[in-house]
Design brief:
mainly alpha, about 230 residues, single chain
């Protein structure tokens, strides 16, 4: 569910290239640089998701679930969370009104994974309806559930009325007791490209006790400092 490994691979593998590019090269606008990085991460995520979808498809096949919208919606009532989760993943590909309505209903599922995945699929369909569910999970006592939610929250940055709250939640997560959550919050702020988050990231880096997370945070700060030099 979370994108921590994706962020590490993309930001540390590709991020330094932009931050250290020659001044002789034509500089992109800030928006173009952010969009290019998002495309890199989106491509990485698509490849990862393609592999996981095969596993979900196998779950549905073994449980004799019809892959039509009506069959997938019926599977949301299955007693097994893994079946409901697989159904949510494929309902997100249906892009019809019935599927959207079913995904919204799944935001009330007893399984956190099903709720968060429903919110993600709705966001992918340009529907922010699941934002409140994701926000609530960022405050859960279970660190694995917080991690899943924090890894997802940046995807709601594309909704204008959610932008400020997304940044607030990520900045708050920089103080989480779990180092993986602090790391992914920093990566999400860098992904969004919010240069106003630089002071919060510097403070998080300076108090960070884990040397690896501190190094990664520093790379994110360098990226945002690079963005700061570009025209909007």
């Amino acid at each position: 569910m979370n994108l921590a490994k994706v962020y590490i691979a993309i930001f540390l593998g590709l991020g330094g290239l932009a931050a250290t590019s020659s001044a002789a090269q034509e500089q992109p606008t800030r928006k173009a640089a952010i969009d290019q990085r998002r495309r890199s991460i989106d491509e990485f995520s698509r490849k990862r998701d393609a592999l996981s979808q095969e596993s979900y498809r196998d779950i549905l096949w073994r449980n004799k679930v019809d892959m039509t919208s009506s069959g997938l919606i019926a599977a949301l009532g299955d007693r097994e969370p893994t079946v409901r989760l697989a159904a949510v993943v494929f309902l997100g590909k249906q892009q019809d009104r019935a599927a959207v309505s079913a995904l919204k209903n799944s935001l009330k599922d007893p399984s956190s994974a099903v709720r968060l995945t429903s919110a993600r699929e709705l966001s992918n369909l340009d529907d922010p309806y699941g934002f409140a569910v994701v926000e609530a999970e960022t405050k859960n006592e279970d660190p694995s559930r917080r991690l899943g939610a924090v890894g997802l929250i940046a995807s709601f940055d594309k909704f204008p009325d959610k932008k400020a709250r997304v940044v607030d939640l990520l900045v708050g997560s920089l103080k989480d007791e779990n180092k993986d959550i602090r790391q992914i919050a920093a990566g999400s702020l860098a992904l969004i490209g919010d240069i106003n988050a630089i002071p919060a990231l510097r403070a998080a880096r300076d108090r960070e006790t884990d040397s690896t997370v501190r190094m990664i945070m520093n790379e994110h700060i360098r990226w945002l400092e690079y963005l700061q030099t570009l025209k909007p």
